[in-house]
């Protein structure tokens, strides 16, 4: 390889080499401001999501430092902010809850392992260019999954607002255990929690308009709104400290080690790896899909394109980083990325500065959150995730297609009722099965000539010319094994009663594949029709399909011809009803 | 319901009421002759297949009596002969080998349960009209599975020829255990076995020509050939008896109860049912596919049609019958059905007469086969199944499509290496995955006008007219979630560099479905192109697809128009480059 080749390759896999060289002071200033805003927002969020994942709060901070830097080096999105996110935190809790007890050392180690596994999977998918696999998560399945997860997450946090114990990875479990321990509810905690909840909801809706009316500059009002959670954290922490509520049983964050992210070793023993592999795979794919859709949305606004396969590499690196520095699985979060984007981040460098900010927080600020009540963190989570809950997809998909509706409904119900992993898996499988079922009973139209054109359409939908001796059938599906016998039966039943038919033309404009089973079926059809004295023709066979047919015996045995255009078939057959042996290829 | 309704319904579900009334003496004579020939052939075959299934020989006879009668009543094929067949016998052995020890009472009961389960499944599928499910077994998968099964069966019978012990449900297992016990090989048994093998192969190939040369009437020569196995049975039995070979360690059939099929009760305990359900399902589907393809082949020769869903009911009844009369799973066999057909059977009544013949055999002839050496039965099986082995499918599928080849190869290898159930399941899953993979990266063609026509084809394959301002893209696949983002990326990348493009026309002649995910992608594409000042149009949208689009907002937001024919789009856009708001529906 020449030096330029190496450089090109390096630039491809390490985008920073590309945008890094053209980094200007302007960009630097914008990135820095964005970083400050995002940092302020991320501190409480990181602590809260760690709580959601069942991990100590510092894990949330650690998971936001090195991963951000690594993504800044390997990722392609200019605005994506990587770190702990709600859905992945929930999936993490569900996954490692099966292999270790919360609060044990094993639990934290399992989280590291999960991050490394998912990092490895993402990296492998990226290098193997398997980004397209994410497409098998259909839009309805994702929408349903996110909504259901939002509900699950909110429900799982209610216990901190009430100051009681509850657990479970399905809605019934959570509600049941909540109800069981309802009597232990602590009024003081509830007051704090509801207070924080009310405040945060108000910040979201009411603060900015108020400030604007008070003549505050929009940009500043924006920042104030983003800083709302910090306000809640500060105020509630002070209250707890001032009135010594911790002694009265208000659950607090407590001592958080004052340090940079530690170097940690995941446990890669065969048992743990095999136990966590499937969850890691699901987390990787879900995280990737969420991240890519955010990145694409933001990139589009600036006419930028992102490279999904390189995104896999960026996220893979980020997760490996998380696994070796005391974190847990991370991905590109919607909220933080939008904030980053709105705050004017121009390059991934903004992410790096955010990392520095969080590192400082981890070093210096952790003692200040000793008295931070868990209820406040729970409140920030609830406010954040309830914005994910959106049932409108049920209505829109119902109106458009029952199959898509079924996929959404199944995903929502199963996620709530049987947990995130079952829910998303079932959603994907169901959408595939429904597709296979549809293609196994394809739509078939008998077509005729639209007068005055060379265009053929369904005789039942349009006023078209037909010829009793020429039966033209347009099959609206690729011909492959699930529907191979279908066409044979359809045609034979159609011509059975109709003595007038002398020619059957299969219009193949919608046939994108003819697999081996379908080829067999076509050969059988050709023979059966021959026995009945009917000639079989094809028309509008596509290039790739024709290439394949030419490698088989079918074109040899075909009693009729292959016409380039349906109109050619019409002209030839309606004028010369006698079948002709001579044949003409479509290519 | 009126009396006629009931009659019609009865005729539909009990075809015998239909053909039964027009039964003539001619038909009776032909059926009777066919029955005699088939009976002669079935006696040794039934005993042999029971041996293959690991059951006592009489089970094979029992499985051929009531089931035949029930199929004659409920089945739709005139020539299909139902009973034990090689592949299903092998699958039976594999299935019940997992829940019971061969030779134990539990083993025989498990066989009954398996038959009843598969009967119930088939009946349910028939009443629910699920016959189409069989199509998911693609032709290559079936071909590969039959070939591999043939090899497995032949290998499993070698032990009887050598007079040694061996077991296993995969080729490695069988070969390994054979090799282990090779030292116990019994020369006398080997002599008998090889003799029988040689004789049967010769009968298959050499006997008929010889007789014809000797001037024997063809019909008679045919019958003689069919009777070959009986000859081998008689001769070897006499040899064993005359020379007292049984005492010298030649394995014989021994005492077979002299009785009509007994009334038996399957064990339907939850454990056994849940253990056997999946195998029963596989046996049902495989058996159904084999049976239907035989029935269709024979029906076609006489211009008759068979009803797959009614076939399910017929086979279901037959298997229920087998389960309650000491048999095991049965289906329509190829060999016996062809014999029945060639012998001139005209109605299912022939089957009923065969049943009578076999009942007489079960009552009267069983003592005569006391000294029948198992080696002879093994020989008849080997000769029968080796005719199933056909590797040509590997070559033909390789030439036609690598995906189909992969499915065949995987099915053969996994069936031999990991057993029949894994093999066939993997084959089906692989063919589905390969199809999904293909559709996730569809073929897309940029098309132009074929001069002098209204027909549009690939610009890279045909000499066509194009207009730099009008980019027409024909996507050769339904638009659904696996490829939803693909089109968006493709179009955006295509127009990115090309400033000349003012209009993008998506030619939808090959788009049979636009699901919700694809709709989202189209809406995104429409907006992105709008931002670039490019108008998006559709053409040749099919009725069913258009119906759906009209239920969405897309047609409202679409910047361009929907053209009935691509030629209309060409005329409108190449003449009037300015985008027009006014829209025209495809319907």
Automatic annotation (TrEMBL), chains A, B:
Pfam families: STAS (PF01740), Sulfate_transp (PF00916)
Example GO BP: transmembrane transport
Transmembrane segments: 32-53, 106-128, 140-162, 228-256, 276-300, 312-330, 350-370, 377-394, 406-434
Membrane topology annotation: Multi-pass membrane protein
Domain (STAS): residue spans on this chain: 460-580
Main location per the UniProt record: membrane
Superkingdom in the source lineage: Bacteria
GO cellular component: membrane
Entry keyword annotation includes rRNA-binding: no
Compartments where found: Membrane
Record keyword Membrane present: yes
Key words of the record: Membrane, Transmembrane, Transmembrane helix
Protein name in the entry: Sulfate permease
Organism, as annotated: Roseicyclus persicicus
Encoding gene, per UniProt annotation: sulP
